[in-house]
TrEMBL record:
It comes from Daphnia pulex (Water flea). PANTHER family: CCAAT-BINDING FACTOR-RELATED, CCAAT_ENHANCER-BINDING PROTEIN ZETA. This is CCAAT-binding factor domain-containing protein.
Length: 313
């Protein structure tokens, strides 16, 4: 292995470093550092090969804990070291030191991934997005940072990259449905950014409207409704007696609202997520094309079934 590391071909060097890390991550952190450093090189083949190797090591190689985050040295129970034998104390300190260094290397890895997400080549950006989704699905380590990076790529200027991101987010929720509220909260932050463009908002709302809900998702359904209704005024731009409506954005909003409302278990409009927005819905009926108006009427029909105040109207 040492001969390969010194004078072997590039692919063989990556394989050798990977083998050392599989045999004993604790004793071969320099190999991890070398693989991470390759993510910054200009050669795209070397970069992609290193990324594939690192993903295998972090997941299949189980360098990361799939059920817990890495912790810093100051979070360890130092006082407990006095209760173990000298040999156990040395082993614990070695493992704690390894965990501390691994956390630092993992942060460096994510910084290098940021570079891939900004690459000029669409394929490279999509590769980086796929890597982030894989890591998110496997381990909670740096979960919030990874999720922010993933959701941010919904605003990618290239349609293929943006839709690929939405697909990765959908697969993430299929595998980990308990993350629905966390992901929706992050998407909500994206929607309210000052520099967000309409296309990114549309993709984000399409993603939200496709989230599968069940009877236990009452808080999630209510949160989604609040997001949708907050965008009605953004879609309806007032011009004297007439209005101009972004049909694609409105269609995504109405689809999501229609799907979420039955799961919110709202017993009355007053004080609920649609409070103050029913008049807007009635107004939209007269401002949009026939297919959208029909969707609005279907939503109003759902509302009337629960709250009879607008039945005559």
């Amino acid at each position: 292995i040492q001969t390969v590391l010194k004078s072997g071909a590039f692919a063989d060097k990556i394989a050798a470093h990977s083998l050392l890390l599989q045999e004993s991550p604790v004793h071969n952190l320099p190999s991890l550092k070398f693989l991470i450093s390759l993510l910054d090189v200009k050669g795209r083949r070397e970069c992609m090969s290193s990324l594939d190797a690192l993903l295998r090591l972090f997941t299949e190689g189980r360098i990361l804990n799939p059920n817990a985050k890495l912790s810093l040295m100051n979070k360890k129970p130092i006082g407990a070291l006095s209760t173990v034998t000298p040999r156990e104390r040395k082993e614990l300190l070695a493992l704690w030191s390894f965990e501390y260094q691994l956390k630092d290397f993992y942060n460096q890895f994510l910084v290098a991934l940021d570079g891939l997400l900004k690459d000029a080549v669409d394929t490279t950006r999509r590769k980086g997005i796929s890597a982030i989704a894989t890591l998110l699905s496997y381990s909670p380590e740096q979960e919030q940072g990874l999720l922010s990076r993933l959701v941010n790529k919904v605003g990618d200027p290239t349609r293929a990259v943006a839709t690929s991101t939405v697909g990765q987010m959908e697969r993430l929720l299929q595998k980990h449905p308990q993350m629905k509220l966390v992901v929706v909260a992050e998407v909500e932050r994206l929607l309210y950014r000052s520099n967000i463009n309409t296309k990114a908002q549309y993709y984000a709302l399409c993603f939200l409207s496709q989230i599968l809900l069940d009877s236990d998702d009452v808080p999630l359904a209510t949160k989604l409704i609040i997001i949708y209704v907050s965008f009605f005024k953004a879609c309806v731009k007032m011009y004297k007696p007439f209005g101009e409506v972004d049909s694609k954005l409105m269609n995504a909003l109405l689809t999501g609202l229609k799907r979420a409302y039955p799961y919110s278990k709202t017993v009355a409009i007053t004080g609920g997520p649609l409070d103050g927005h029913v008049d807007t819905l009635f107004k939209i009926v007269h401002m949009v094309k026939f297919s959208l108006a029909t969707q609005v009427l279907c939503i109003l029909d759902q509302i009337v079934e629960i709250d009879k105040n607008n039945s005559d109207r």
